[in-house]
């Protein structure tokens, strides 16, 4: 075995180890501190590598990580899981390629690699088809100090950059050839861990008031929802509606300021069903408070809209928000011609129509931003609602199709990050659980279990101010992308490293991925000791 082959094998093993370790920082294990060391093997794997070896290391780490963190997609078919896995791995492969170029200097390894990682997380959060922001590195820190305050300043992506910085600095402590470089790396680790304590943490400014909110969860029963959003098996929609109505009417003796029914609470269009509309209106009138209700609305018989309806206390619909960020291949088929070659897409008989703008609801004098399910994983979309004046964020969701997988826990974790980013309380209302109240520090209260009837209720604080990320989020993310581009160009141009005259650069100062010297000794010759 040649030294180059040996080194490549060890790089790939280290990369797979990183992907596996990172899974432990996500539910169900969900230990945030693991994320601080999980990517150390990957940082060592790209150190001094060729671009090809770095790309392969990124591919291996990405396949190990996303293969596990997205396992729940397989419930929709292995084709869906494989396609999304392949797409996500592309971004990690690109990361490995660029990281290898940038790994030939101290600055490139310590700061350049985290910036590259952050930029590629930004890219996959937006492209293609609106992006997929699931499994972002920063979301591992959802459950508190010391790093979570970084999200208030720079959002989940900057939080991920800091987590990656800790990993690359630890890798430098392990592999740096000189004591001064190791000492500098130790200082970087200490600053990255302790520095966030200096960031003000909590709501955006002082609370301007409270709103008494009740969110209703109904035991829809496992298997009630089909594999696609809004599809129910059998006549369960009437039973579920009765659950929402019964729980709501029980509030009439002590009504809250706002009642929330989550996404898909109504699968029959109330505008097309006078009897259904009458049931809801009479319930709202009995409670005598505004209701925010998730509903699937018909659109010309060939499409649907996934919407939130605001019923005023009089029982009439006062406002409506249509989901803007639909799920590709879940709520619509981006390229209809694919239906002819992928029969499984026939399970999506109707495409959803996206909304065109955020809508701010007004209830009890409070401005409310209501986002629907998938939308809450996108920081920029939630920020649009706050930009328009939302004092409170409601995440209305339906994760029943995913059963008891980790989806509900991961989704709640992202609501925790959104709360810190914007300095807003988040009411995370799920039709089958997990439902919870998330305060502006990301702390969870009244967390419910899955597939059980529940009502969560709280006087939630309202905020009008803006966090640094809320004000400057676009500029901050553009800065990360621009810095990463500079790192990539500098690395390729040789500013961070040396020109390569061999396939593999392994200078004496680099971490030694080579095998023991004895393993490279030539095989004994069969020609005898006197052979030349």
Detailed description of the structure:
By secondary structure, the chain is an alpha/beta fold. The chain has two domains: 3-202 and 472-509; 209-466, 4-Layer Sandwich (Nitrilase/N-carbamoyl-D-aminoacid amidohydrolase). The protein is built from 13 helices and 13 strands. The strands form two sheets. Strands 1, 2, 3, 4, 5, 6 and 13 form a seven-stranded mixed sheet that branches. A six-stranded mixed sheet has the order 7-8-9-10-11-12, covered by helices on one side. The chain is globular and about 75 Å long.
List the main descriptive attributes of the protein structure presented here:
532 residues, alpha/beta, Nitrilase/N-carbamoyl-D-aminoacid amidohydrolase, 13 strands, disordered C terminus
Flag low-confidence runs.
499-509, 516-532
What is the fold named in CATH at topology level of the largest domain? Nitrilase/N-carbamoyl-D-aminoacid amidohydrolase
The tally of beta strands, per DSSP, is 13
For the terminal residues, how far apart are their CA atoms? 23 Å
What's the number of domains? Answer: 2
- Helix/strand class: alpha/beta
Helix fraction, binned, reads 40-55%
Can you tell me the CATH architecture of the largest domain?
4-Layer Sandwich
Q: Sheet with the most strands?
A: 7 strands, mixed
The general outline is globular
What is the C-alpha radius of gyration, as a whole number of Å? 26 Å
Order of secondary-structure elements: HHHHHHHHEHEHEEEEEEHEHEEEEH
Average pLDDT value? 89
Structure annotation, total helices = 13
């Amino acid at each position: 075995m040649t030294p180059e082959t040996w080194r490549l094998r060890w790089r790939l093993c280290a990369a797979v180890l990183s992907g596996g370790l990172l899974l432990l920082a996500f539910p169900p294990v969900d230990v945030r501190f693991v994320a601080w060391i999980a990517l150390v093997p990957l940082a060592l794997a790209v150190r001094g590598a060729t671009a090809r070896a770095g790309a392969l290391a990124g591919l291996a780490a990405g396949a190990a990580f996303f293969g596990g963190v997205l396992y729940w997609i397989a419930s929709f078919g292995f084709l869906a899981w494989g396609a999304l896995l392949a797409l996500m791995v592309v971004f990690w492969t690109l990361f490995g390629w660029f990281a290898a170029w940038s790994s030939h200097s101290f600055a490139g390894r310590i700061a350049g690699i985290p910036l590259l990682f952050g930029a590629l997380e930004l890219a996959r959060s937006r492209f293609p088809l609106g992006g997929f922001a699931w499994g972002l590195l920063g979301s591992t820190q959802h459950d508190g100090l010391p790093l979570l305050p970084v999200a208030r300043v720079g959002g989940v992506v900057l939080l991920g950059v800091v987590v990656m910085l800790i990993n690359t600095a630890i890798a430098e402590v392990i592999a740096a050839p000189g004591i001064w470089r190791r000492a500098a790396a130790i200082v970087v680790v200490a600053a990255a861990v302790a520095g966030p304590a200096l960031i003000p943490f909590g709501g955006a400014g002082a609370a301007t008031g409270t709103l008494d909110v009740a969110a209703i969860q109904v035991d829809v029963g496992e298997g009630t929802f089909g594999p696609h959003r809004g599809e129910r098996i059998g006549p369960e929609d009437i039973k579920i509606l009765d659950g929402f109505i019964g729980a709501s009417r029980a509030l009439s003796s002590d009504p809250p300021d706002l009642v929330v029914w989550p996404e898909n609470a109504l699968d029959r269009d109330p505008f097309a069903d006078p009897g259904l509309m009458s049931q809801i209106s009479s319930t709202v009138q009995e409670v005598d408070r505004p209701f925010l209700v998730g509903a699937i609305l018909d659109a010309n018989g060939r499409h649907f809209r996934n919407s939130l309806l605001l019923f005023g206390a009089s029982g009439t619909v006062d406002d409506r928000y249509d989901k803007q960020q639909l799920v590709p291949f879940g709520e619509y088929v981006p390229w209809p011609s694919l239906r002819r070659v992928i029969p499984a897409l026939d399970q999506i008989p109707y495409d959803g129509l996206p909304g065109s703008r955020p809508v701010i609801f007004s209830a009890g004098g409070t401005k409310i931003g209501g986002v629907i399910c998938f939308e809450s994983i996108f920081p920029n979309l939630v920020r649009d609602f706050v930009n328009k004046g939302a004092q409170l964020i409601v995440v209305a969701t339906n994760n029943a199709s995913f059963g008891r997988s980790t989806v509900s826990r991961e989704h709640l974790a992202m609501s925790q990050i959104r709360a810190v980013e914007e300095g807003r309380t988040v009411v995370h209302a799920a039709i089958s659980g997990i439902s919870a109240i998330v305060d502006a520090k990301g702390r969870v209260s009244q967390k419910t279990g899955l597939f059980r009837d529940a009502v969560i209720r709280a006087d939630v604080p309202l905020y009008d101010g803006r966090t640094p990320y809320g004000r400057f989020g676009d500029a901050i993310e553009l800065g990360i992308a621009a810095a990463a581009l500079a790192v990539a160009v500098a690395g390729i141009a040789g500013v961070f490293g040396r020109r390569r005259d061999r396939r593999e650069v392994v200078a004496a100062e680099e971490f030694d991925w080579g095998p023991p010297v004895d393993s490279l000794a030539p095989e004994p010759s069969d020609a005898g000791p006197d052979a030349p």
